[in-house]
Amino acid sequence: MRAGDCFLIGGHWLTPHLWIVLTEPSGDPARVLIASCTSRRSWSDDTVVLNRGDHPFIRHETVIAYAQIRIVESRVIEFQLYRGKITSKERMRRAVLDRVVEAVLASDNTTGKCKQFIRDGNFGTDAAIKSVEKRRGTRGP
After folding, report:
1. CB–CB of 32/74 below 8 Å?
2. 104 Cβ contact list (under 8 Å, min separation 6)
3. What pairs with residue 89 in β-bridges?
4. Which of 27, 42, 87, 121 has the fewest CB atoms within 10 Å around its CB?
């Protein structure tokens, strides 16, 4: 499980949605921050808008559901992949992942707990690290 990994949740009676692993596993047990992609609507949080070409699964304007971001144990995702309950998809390109991760702090809809997870250093991309450090007024090692 790495930052940028993607998977589908849904099927049968639920519309499948692409989920992105935003952070590297951290802690004991190892946890990651995951975010759902959903079709853009008039009421959507458009902090980040993804388009065709940003990921093979994305076919039209898509947003990140920052209100639905979750911190989960990475072993739970791995177990569901093993059981076939969720489906692995192509990894998110680094440039797109950086945009999505950076916007975790920018979105008014991200929960305080998830923002704190990022602020505590649980991020996985260079651009996101620089953005967070700039907001904190600190610099990395």
Report:
1. yes
2. 22, 33, 35, 66, 69, 110, 114, 115, 118, 128
3. 6
4. 42
Closest by Cα among 129, 54, 42, 136 to 90: 54
pLDDT score of 90 more than 90:
yes
Helix (H) or strand (E) holding 64: strand 62-64
Tell if the pTM clears 0.90, that is, is over it: no
Here the tokens at position 40 are 């853009």
d(CA 120, CA 102): 14
The tens digit of pLDDT for each residue in 23-63 reads: 999 999 999 999 999 999 999 999 999 999 999 999 999 99
